[in-house]
Amino acid sequence: xxxEPCAAIWDVDGTLVDTAELHFAAWERMSxxxxxxxxxxxxxATFGRRNPEIIRFLFRREFTDAEVLDIGERKxxxxxxxxxAGVDLLPGVRDLLDGLHARGVRQAVGSSAPRGNLDLILxxxxxxxxxxxxxGMEDTHRGKPDPxxxxxxxxxxxxxxxxxxxxxxxxxxxxxxxxxxxxxxxxTFVGHHPEEKLRAAGADRVVKCFTEISASDVIGLINAR
Length: 225
Fold this sequence. Notes:
single chain; alpha/beta; Rossmann fold; DNA polymerase, domain 1; 2 domains; 6 strands
Protein backbone atom coordinates (compact mmCIF):
# COMPACT_ATOMS: atom_id res chain seq x y z
CA UNK A 1 0.00 0.00 0.00
CA UNK A 2 1.20 3.60 -0.58
CA UNK A 3 2.65 5.20 2.56
CA GLU A 4 0.83 8.48 1.82
CA PRO A 5 -2.55 8.99 0.12
CA CYS A 6 -2.27 9.00 -3.64
CA ALA A 7 -4.70 9.13 -6.52
CA ALA A 8 -5.25 8.22 -10.15
CA ILE A 9 -7.41 10.52 -12.27
CA TRP A 10 -8.80 9.08 -15.50
CA ASP A 11 -9.76 10.89 -18.66
CA VAL A 12 -12.58 8.99 -20.38
CA ASP A 13 -12.78 9.28 -24.17
CA GLY A 14 -9.70 7.64 -25.66
CA THR A 15 -8.44 6.51 -22.26
CA LEU A 16 -11.10 4.46 -20.47
CA VAL A 17 -13.10 3.83 -23.65
CA ASP A 18 -12.99 4.66 -27.35
CA THR A 19 -16.16 6.51 -28.31
CA ALA A 20 -14.57 8.99 -30.73
CA GLU A 21 -16.55 7.83 -33.75
CA LEU A 22 -19.80 8.11 -31.81
CA HIS A 23 -18.92 11.69 -30.92
CA PHE A 24 -17.93 12.48 -34.51
CA ALA A 25 -21.22 11.16 -35.86
CA ALA A 26 -23.20 13.14 -33.27
CA TRP A 27 -21.37 16.41 -34.00
CA GLU A 28 -21.68 15.82 -37.75
CA ARG A 29 -25.44 15.28 -37.49
CA MET A 30 -26.04 18.27 -35.23
CA SER A 31 -23.85 20.57 -37.35
CA UNK A 32 -25.56 19.46 -40.55
CA UNK A 33 -28.93 20.29 -39.01
CA UNK A 34 -27.58 23.78 -38.28
CA UNK A 35 -26.36 24.24 -41.86
CA UNK A 36 -22.64 23.72 -41.34
CA UNK A 37 -20.48 20.76 -42.40
CA UNK A 38 -18.42 19.10 -39.66
CA UNK A 39 -15.07 17.78 -40.85
CA UNK A 40 -12.33 15.56 -39.46
CA UNK A 41 -10.25 18.72 -39.11
CA UNK A 42 -12.99 20.25 -36.95
CA UNK A 43 -13.03 17.10 -34.84
CA UNK A 44 -9.26 17.12 -34.33
CA ALA A 45 -9.32 20.82 -33.41
CA THR A 46 -12.07 20.42 -30.79
CA PHE A 47 -11.65 16.91 -29.35
CA GLY A 48 -11.47 16.99 -25.56
CA ARG A 49 -12.81 20.52 -25.26
CA ARG A 50 -16.00 21.49 -23.43
CA ASN A 51 -19.22 21.81 -25.44
CA PRO A 52 -19.58 25.58 -24.98
CA GLU A 53 -16.08 26.08 -26.39
CA ILE A 54 -16.70 23.65 -29.28
CA ILE A 55 -20.01 25.26 -30.26
CA ARG A 56 -18.57 28.76 -30.33
CA PHE A 57 -15.54 27.52 -32.29
CA LEU A 58 -17.70 25.81 -34.90
CA PHE A 59 -20.25 28.52 -35.50
CA ARG A 60 -18.15 31.64 -34.84
CA ARG A 61 -21.02 33.59 -33.39
CA GLU A 62 -22.40 34.46 -30.00
CA PHE A 63 -25.04 32.28 -28.41
CA THR A 64 -26.90 32.76 -25.16
CA ASP A 65 -26.08 30.28 -22.42
CA ALA A 66 -29.50 28.70 -22.96
CA GLU A 67 -28.83 28.26 -26.68
CA VAL A 68 -25.44 26.66 -25.99
CA LEU A 69 -27.06 24.30 -23.51
CA ASP A 70 -29.78 23.34 -26.02
CA ILE A 71 -27.33 22.72 -28.89
CA GLY A 72 -24.99 20.74 -26.68
CA GLU A 73 -27.80 18.61 -25.27
CA ARG A 74 -29.08 17.82 -28.76
CA LYS A 75 -25.60 16.59 -29.74
CA UNK A 76 -25.27 14.55 -26.53
CA UNK A 77 -28.65 12.92 -27.03
CA UNK A 78 -27.44 11.64 -30.41
CA UNK A 79 -24.23 10.39 -28.80
CA UNK A 80 -25.95 8.67 -25.86
CA UNK A 81 -28.43 6.88 -28.09
CA UNK A 82 -25.55 5.40 -30.07
CA UNK A 83 -23.51 4.55 -26.95
CA UNK A 84 -26.40 2.57 -25.48
CA ALA A 85 -25.70 -0.07 -28.13
CA GLY A 86 -22.58 -1.01 -26.18
CA VAL A 87 -19.18 0.38 -25.18
CA ASP A 88 -16.27 -1.62 -23.73
CA LEU A 89 -13.32 -0.59 -21.58
CA LEU A 90 -10.07 -0.46 -23.51
CA PRO A 91 -7.48 -3.27 -23.11
CA GLY A 92 -5.86 -3.41 -19.69
CA VAL A 93 -8.13 -0.79 -18.13
CA ARG A 94 -10.16 -3.09 -15.87
CA ASP A 95 -7.08 -4.88 -14.56
CA LEU A 96 -5.45 -1.54 -13.76
CA LEU A 97 -8.61 -0.24 -12.08
CA ASP A 98 -8.71 -3.43 -9.99
CA GLY A 99 -5.01 -3.25 -9.16
CA LEU A 100 -5.13 0.39 -8.07
CA HIS A 101 -8.25 -0.22 -5.99
CA ALA A 102 -6.61 -3.20 -4.28
CA ARG A 103 -3.54 -1.08 -3.45
CA GLY A 104 -5.64 1.67 -1.83
CA VAL A 105 -5.15 4.26 -4.58
CA ARG A 106 -8.07 6.69 -4.73
CA GLN A 107 -9.52 7.06 -8.23
CA ALA A 108 -11.54 9.72 -10.02
CA VAL A 109 -12.81 10.58 -13.46
CA GLY A 110 -11.65 13.96 -14.79
CA SER A 111 -13.28 14.71 -18.14
CA SER A 112 -14.53 17.57 -20.31
CA ALA A 113 -17.65 15.53 -21.10
CA PRO A 114 -21.09 16.31 -19.63
CA ARG A 115 -21.98 14.39 -16.49
CA GLY A 116 -24.76 12.52 -18.29
CA ASN A 117 -22.21 11.03 -20.70
CA LEU A 118 -19.90 10.00 -17.88
CA ASP A 119 -22.70 8.35 -15.90
CA LEU A 120 -23.76 6.49 -19.05
CA ILE A 121 -20.27 5.18 -19.85
CA LEU A 122 -19.58 4.11 -16.27
CA UNK A 123 -22.93 2.32 -16.11
CA UNK A 124 -22.51 0.52 -19.44
CA UNK A 125 -18.96 -0.61 -18.62
CA UNK A 126 -19.75 -1.54 -15.00
CA UNK A 127 -16.90 0.63 -13.73
CA UNK A 128 -18.63 3.20 -11.50
CA UNK A 129 -17.67 1.32 -8.31
CA UNK A 130 -13.98 2.12 -8.80
CA UNK A 131 -14.36 5.89 -8.62
CA UNK A 132 -14.58 8.01 -5.49
CA UNK A 133 -15.23 11.20 -7.47
CA UNK A 134 -16.58 12.14 -10.91
CA UNK A 135 -15.68 15.51 -12.42
CA GLY A 136 -17.23 16.59 -15.71
CA MET A 137 -18.10 19.65 -17.77
CA GLU A 138 -20.58 21.01 -15.24
CA ASP A 139 -17.92 21.11 -12.52
CA THR A 140 -15.52 23.37 -14.42
CA HIS A 141 -15.33 26.73 -16.17
CA ARG A 142 -12.20 26.17 -18.22
CA GLY A 143 -11.29 23.28 -20.50
CA LYS A 144 -7.98 21.47 -20.93
CA PRO A 145 -5.10 22.40 -21.20
CA ASP A 146 -6.19 24.38 -18.14
CA PRO A 147 -5.67 22.04 -15.13
CA UNK A 148 -8.98 22.92 -13.46
CA UNK A 149 -10.68 19.56 -14.11
CA UNK A 150 -7.83 17.59 -12.53
CA UNK A 151 -7.39 19.99 -9.61
CA UNK A 152 -11.11 19.72 -8.81
CA UNK A 153 -10.81 15.92 -8.92
CA UNK A 154 -7.80 15.95 -6.59
CA UNK A 155 -9.63 18.21 -4.17
CA UNK A 156 -12.67 15.92 -4.17
CA UNK A 157 -10.41 12.95 -3.46
CA UNK A 158 -8.58 14.80 -0.68
CA UNK A 159 -5.18 14.18 -2.29
CA UNK A 160 -2.56 16.83 -3.04
CA UNK A 161 -1.77 17.32 -6.76
CA UNK A 162 1.82 16.11 -6.41
CA UNK A 163 0.45 12.76 -5.19
CA UNK A 164 -1.76 12.32 -8.27
CA UNK A 165 -1.19 10.66 -11.63
CA UNK A 166 -3.40 11.42 -14.62
CA UNK A 167 -4.21 8.92 -17.36
CA UNK A 168 -4.66 10.70 -20.69
CA UNK A 169 -4.56 10.20 -24.44
CA UNK A 170 -4.46 13.81 -25.66
CA UNK A 171 -1.81 16.51 -25.75
CA UNK A 172 -4.11 19.07 -24.09
CA UNK A 173 -4.82 16.59 -21.29
CA UNK A 174 -1.13 15.90 -20.71
CA UNK A 175 -0.49 19.65 -20.62
CA UNK A 176 -3.32 20.07 -18.11
CA UNK A 177 -1.86 17.38 -15.85
CA UNK A 178 1.58 18.99 -15.92
CA UNK A 179 0.12 22.46 -15.30
CA UNK A 180 -1.61 21.03 -12.24
CA UNK A 181 1.64 19.64 -10.85
CA UNK A 182 0.64 16.01 -11.45
CA UNK A 183 2.38 13.04 -13.03
CA UNK A 184 0.92 11.76 -16.31
CA UNK A 185 0.75 8.43 -18.13
CA UNK A 186 -0.33 8.81 -21.74
CA UNK A 187 -1.82 6.01 -23.83
CA THR A 188 -1.64 5.81 -27.64
CA PHE A 189 -4.06 2.90 -28.24
CA VAL A 190 -6.77 4.98 -29.91
CA GLY A 191 -4.18 6.98 -31.81
CA HIS A 192 -5.39 10.56 -31.52
CA HIS A 193 -1.87 11.79 -30.77
CA PRO A 194 1.53 10.17 -31.53
CA GLU A 195 3.96 9.21 -28.79
CA GLU A 196 6.44 11.96 -29.63
CA LYS A 197 3.84 14.71 -29.18
CA LEU A 198 2.63 13.25 -25.89
CA ARG A 199 6.21 13.10 -24.60
CA ALA A 200 6.85 16.65 -25.78
CA ALA A 201 3.74 17.77 -23.88
CA GLY A 202 5.27 16.38 -20.70
CA ALA A 203 4.01 12.81 -20.28
CA ASP A 204 6.12 10.93 -17.72
CA ARG A 205 5.40 7.65 -19.45
CA VAL A 206 3.75 6.69 -22.74
CA VAL A 207 2.23 3.24 -23.27
CA LYS A 208 0.52 1.63 -26.23
CA CYS A 209 -2.20 0.28 -23.95
CA PHE A 210 -2.74 -0.25 -20.24
CA THR A 211 -1.63 -3.88 -20.36
CA GLU A 212 1.89 -2.38 -20.32
CA ILE A 213 1.62 -0.80 -16.88
CA SER A 214 0.72 -2.11 -13.42
CA ALA A 215 -0.61 -0.59 -10.21
CA SER A 216 2.89 -0.95 -8.73
CA ASP A 217 4.34 1.00 -11.67
CA VAL A 218 1.82 3.80 -11.12
CA ILE A 219 2.57 4.02 -7.40
CA GLY A 220 6.29 4.03 -8.16
CA LEU A 221 5.78 6.93 -10.57
CA ILE A 222 3.88 8.91 -7.94
CA ASN A 223 6.57 8.24 -5.32
CA ALA A 224 9.42 9.25 -7.65
CA ARG A 225 10.76 12.70 -6.83
